[in-house]
Amino acid sequence: MTKPIRQVGVIGAGVMGAGIAAHLANAGIKVFLLDIVPPGLDESKKSDKKARDAFAAGGLEKAVKGKPALFFHKSFARLVTTGNTEDDLAKLGECDLVIEAVVERLDIKQALFEKLEKILPEHAIVASNTSGLRIHDMMQGRSEGFKKRFLVMHFFNPVRYMKLLELVAGPDTDPKTVEHIRKFGEDQLGKGIVFGKDTPNFVGNRIGIQAMMATIHQMLKDGLSPEDVDNITGSPLGHPKSASFRTADMVGLDAFVDVAENCYNALPDDEERDTFAVPAFIKTMVEMKLLGNKTRGGFYKKTPAGILTFDPTTQDYRAKAGD
């Protein structure tokens, strides 16, 4: 477990997975970036490797074109090899570290870890980028050896620019595994490490989602709008100009709702539990696929005519006020 980390596998080529892969490449590390085979492929494309790799390749392409830039230089993308989890999972047997960044569903993660246990070398460390699922639950059915090499590495978006990296050890994680990843995170990735406990949403998201949800509920109670709130919680408070709702658009409303609902469901006796209840208008936005920057429309939406705001009352876009 102290072998140098020279090859890393990242499973899941969404916003977080692709961002993690890009930053690993920034550190000069070779990366396998895998995602699922796109569902519903035509018969003519089911045997076409390029078509089967489309999700991973698309994630890498978005990372290369990302603004702000996710790669130090676009040429670093040459260190990232894309593939899919049906044809290429065995290639992860060459890796020293595998980071899972798939959808926040416990059953999907458990099934993936079962497959990984069969193909990874004994020295390989396995990490989850989950934003709040418990290690105890994810490790159901895994061997003691696998559990010793498993921990949470929770990056924050955008990975290149957000210094924080949360590390969370499970009850069976070998302390040598944690120390090895701590040094890797600090020395090779340039991260500031915070150690969390295996509790719902760990540290950063537990604090951040409580603050954001309390702000949203107060906004609705006072009849305010997203831009009203952002005009207070951004630069005037010494915070980034992305403030509250623009930051949520960067994170992604689907991830935002996942974290809030995870807290609400996992904390039945918490005195602040109702704070984590997701308002109806946000659930509507997720149903409409208005997820933020990743879908080019969330709480805010850029158009040729200017910036629009999603109005919680009418549940439709209108011209952004206050500019």
Walk me through what this model shows.
Helix 1 packs across helix 3. 37% of the residues lie in helices and 17% in strands. The mean pLDDT is 95. The chain contains 12 helices and 11 strands. It is α/β, with parallel strands linked by helices and 323 residues long. The radius of gyration is 20 Å and the shape is globular. The chain has an 8-stranded mixed beta sheet. Strand 9 and strand 10 form a beta hairpin. It has 2 domains: 190 residues, Rossmann fold (3-Layer(aba) Sandwich); 116 residues, N-(1-d-carboxylethyl)-l-norvaline Dehydrogenase, domain 2 (Orthogonal Bundle), CATH 1.10.1040.
Task: Provide the descriptors you would attach to this structure in a database record.
323 residues, alpha/beta, Rossmann fold, N-(1-d-carboxylethyl)-l-norvaline Dehydrogenase, domain 2, 2 domains, eight-stranded mixed β-sheet, 37% helix, 17% strand
Low-confidence stretches: none
CATH class of the largest domain: Alpha Beta
Strand count, sense and barrel status of the largest sheet are: 8 strands, mixed
**Contiguous helical run count:** 12
Order of helices and strands: EHEHHEEHEHHEEHEHHHHHEEE
What class do helices, strands and sheet pairing give?
A: alpha/beta
What is the CATH-assigned architecture of the largest domain?
Answer: 3-Layer(aba) Sandwich
In whole angstroms, the N-to-C terminal distance is: 54 Å
The CATH H-level superfamily of the largest domain is: NAD(P)-binding Rossmann-like Domain
Counted beta strands: 11
Give the percentage of residues in beta strands.
15-25%
**Strand order within the widest beta sheet:** 3-2-1-4-5-6-7-8
